[in-house]
């Protein structure tokens, strides 16, 4: 956070934008960072005994369980820094968005964002052209798609089959401010982010 406010004292920024909860297996957080936020009242949830789920999985579970009484399909979780770095971590993050397909989880990096389009819906994606695009892609995940159809793209799909080892829609271009997608399998939607 201090990088967003270079004119301010880094300690002041860290105090002002402190997390409510730090949850995970605690293997990648420096001890002094953990102690700093604990001293400010941040709840620390140590799940180091659970090595079967990733830190993102643990955090999404925490958010889901904390939102009792709410329709989970209305939740939107933005995950910053989920892309780039180790490929196995990226794949683990993609696995989480598939595991929690009933929730909207958006993975964001400096270059792009990704979210899951479950097969059970006809999706309308409203493009924020000031920050998104023009490059985009649709990638079948889990199973091949026998039929995917889009509108609003330079190269629309028309009952197109897609699968790994065959066609996947990469390097496509958004041509309209509304894109529609319908598929018989779950698809990952990815779109480039413009440098501000």
TrEMBL record:
Keyword Kinase: yes
Domain Thiamin pyrophosphokinase thiamin-binding residue range list: 123-187
Annotated keywords: ATP-binding, Kinase, Nucleotide-binding, Transferase
InterPro entries: Thi_PPkinase, Thiamin_PyroPKinase_B1-bd, TPK_B1-bd_sf, TPK_catalytic, TPK_catalytic_sf
Full protein name: thiamine diphosphokinase
Enzyme Commission number: 2.7.6.2
CDD domains per the UniProt record, alphabetical: TPK
PANTHER family xref list: THIAMIN PYROPHOSPHOKINASE, THIAMIN PYROPHOSPHOKINASE 1
GO molecular function, one term: thiamine diphosphokinase activity
Principal subcellular localization: cytoplasm
Function: Catalyzes the phosphorylation of thiamine to thiamine pyrophosphate (TPP). TPP is an active cofactor for enzymes involved in glycolysis and energy production. Plant leaves require high levels of TPP for photosynthesis and carbohydrate metabolism.
Protein's cellular compartments: Cytoplasm, Cytosol
Flavoprotein keyword on record: no
SMART domains xrefs: TPK_B1_binding
GO annotation, biological process: thiamine diphosphate biosynthetic process; thiamine metabolic process
GO CC terms in record: cytosol
